[in-house]
Design a protein that fits this description.
Layout (H helix, E strand, L loop, with lengths): L18 E7 L10 H7 L13 E9 L12 H9 L2 H4 L6 H5 L7 H13 L15 H9 L4 H16 L9 E12 L4 E8 L24 H12 L11 E7 L5 H19 L8 E6 L7 H4 L12 H7 L1 E6 L7 H8 L6 E4 L5 H11 L4 E7 L3 H11 L5 H10 E13 L5 E11 L2 H10 L17 E2 L1 H14 L8 H17 L3
Parallel strand pairs: 5-9, 5-10, 6-7, 6-8, 8-9
Antiparallel strand pairs: 1-4, 2-3, 3-4, 10-11, 11-12
Helix pairs in contact: 5-7, 8-9, 8-17, 13-14, 15-16, 17-18
């Protein structure tokens, strides 16, 4: 995704959130396609379906950050005061800036003070008629006219644009801060376009959702690496599929349950395992992806610094040892069906599908997995039973023979439940409660004979290795490993274990 060539902002939203929705007036003509203004500002090329009501598509877009933020005020307190004082007459028009200009020893909070003063001006009366304010460009006016928003909101955005043009010399050169996925669709009976943006995390794979700088588990109880190692151990090793795994692995959960991060982490771990088990030079492992849109390129999955706990210490080396073919729907290939047909001649070690939604897609993935390949995908589901039901429904499963066919094509189905976990009266940590079904002889037999009724949360013993593992047991395993190594737990192990067990047990009693 090329960087925007101008410093003009695109979206104007609350500084507190990364996910937001806004609305545009629909403007279509032969010479000016729908969302043309957004296209110009984001350098993004959607396929617009004319005036059809089937106007819905995803794009990975770059959002130019609000220029007037504390981060964009690049200078330190003294330098910033000096730059402010160079045109004191101009800046004195904003009341909140006057006391900052009079400070003889400006504090380090001067940038926050400037930001607060500017925000007060933005939220105030319209600045459009002020003589000291620079005029807006035609493209800015065009963008404001295209917005479908309340008058006070448009006034605030116009004020912000006016101030950003007026105070441009205060702003940092780099203003791109948010990259993410945007969903464009029609709303209000086709009169408007709804744009929902969701920011992508800066880190992915094993790096995502890790610990704070103090190396404490205060923000996230476990890292993505810890979840992936535990899930990989339970899904892959019992099936004796390391490194030659086959079948469909589905990672499910609700929105914002780290589905994509876990899926990417499992792929990263599996590629590392393949290289570790490789005995002689030959064909490099080949990762093929199909996404709509491509949220992260392969380089951000595998080029981070490794840790001693991994089989490959430096993942920069892994990037040079793995082939990577990324394919985006509508740009590199028209459909998942064609991508899978091509993959049959590309020797894939892993085929990753960003998200599976349609019944036809489930059928395609199951058939491809039956050819002896490993397929990893994500999907939305409220529970493990619901995830398996989706697959059965797509396959029109009616008999025990149908269930046996599906069970043999699956490698595993994982469901992630997210929960905020109180540590004390003030601190809260995030935790995932995973549960899973894995392909074992016992699991295939149970799913074949009893169907969805066989998906019960089990607590395995030394002699018992069930196919369906409950959240309580998996979280206990994570706690045991966390107590042995890694960052310290925020509260005592026994106290934390008691709280976790209670919550996981309640979830297991509700079913998987």
């Amino acid at each position: 995704m090329p960087k925007p060539k101008t410093l003009e902002p695109v979206f104007h939203v609350s500084l507190s959130g990364d996910d937001f929705t806004f609305y545009l007036k629909r403007q279509e003509s032969k010479n000016k396609p729908a969302v043309g203004t957004v296209r110009e500002r984001l350098e993004f090329l959607p396929v617009v379906a004319g005036s059809s009501t089937e106007f819905s598509f995803s794009e990975r877009v770059v959002v130019v950050s609000l220029a007037l933020t504390e981060a964009s005020l690049a200078a330190n307190a003294r330098q910033l005061k000096k730059r402010l004082s160079q045109n004191a007459t101009l800046y004195s028009n904003i009341k909140g800036l006057q006391p900052l200009l009079k400070q003889t020893n400006p504090s380090g909070n001067i940038r926050a003070g400037i930001l607060n003063a500017i925000n007060a001006a933005i939220n105030g009366p319209s600045l459009e008629r002020e003589k000291w304010v620079s005029r807006l460009a035609a493209s800015d006016e065009e963008f404001l006219q295209s917005l479908e928003a309340p008058i006070p909101t448009v006034r605030k955005w116009r004020n912000r644009l006016l101030l950003e043009r007026t105070f441009r010399q205060l702003l940092k050169e780099t203003v791109i801060e948010k990259t993410g996925r945007a969903l464009f669709c029609l709303t209000n009976r086709g009169k408007n376009i709804s744009v929902t943006f969701r920011r992508l995390k800066d880190k992915s794979g094993f790096e995502a959702a890790s610990y704070s700088k103090k190396r404490e588990r205060s923000d996230n109880l476990f890292s993505i690496e810890e979840y992936c190692v535990q899930i990989y151990r339970e899904v892959f090793e019992p099936t004796q599929s390391v490194p030659n795994a086959r079948g469909l692995l589905v990672v499910t959960g609700s929105t914002n349950s780290a589905k994509s991060e876990i899926a990417r982490g499992l792929i990263q771990l599996h590629l590392t395992k393949i290289l570790t088990h490789k005995e002689k030079p030959g064909r490099k492992p080949h990762l093929i992806t199909f996404e709509d849109p491509i949220e992260r390129p392969y380089g951000t999955w595998l080029n981070s610094n490794g840790r001693a706990t991994w089989n490959v210490a430096n993942l920069k080396a892994l990037q040079t040892k793995v082939d990577y073919t990324s394919r985006e729907k509508g740009k590199d290939v028209d459909s998942l069906k064609i991508a899978l047909e091509d993959a049959l001649r590309q020797t894939p070690s892993v085929f990753f599908v960003g998200e599976t939604r349609k019944k036809t897609e489930w059928n395609l993935l199951l058939d491809f997995a039956a050819t002896g390949h490993l397929v990893v995908t994500t999907a939305h589901a409220g529970s493990l039973v619901e995830a398996m039901h989706k697959i059965f429904e797509a396959r029109c499963v009616k008999t025990s023979g149908d269930r046996s066919e599906v069970a043999n094509k699956l490698l595993g189905v994982v469901h992630l439940g997210r929960e905020k976990f109180p540590l004390d009266k003030q601190k809260v940590t995030n935790a995932l409660f995973p549960t899973l079904w894995r392909r074992t002889p016992r699991g295939i037999a149970a799913l074949t004979s009893n169907g969805l009724a066989s998906l019960l949360p089990h607590y395995p013993s030394a002699d018992d290795k069930p196919s369906c593992l409950g959240r309580k047991w998996l979280v206990e395993c994570l706690l045991k490993n966390a107590n042995k190594k890694g960052p310290q737990l925020p509260i005592s192990y026994e106290a934390l274990k008691k709280k976790i067990n209670q919550s996981a047990t309640n979830r297991d009693l509700q079913g998987v």
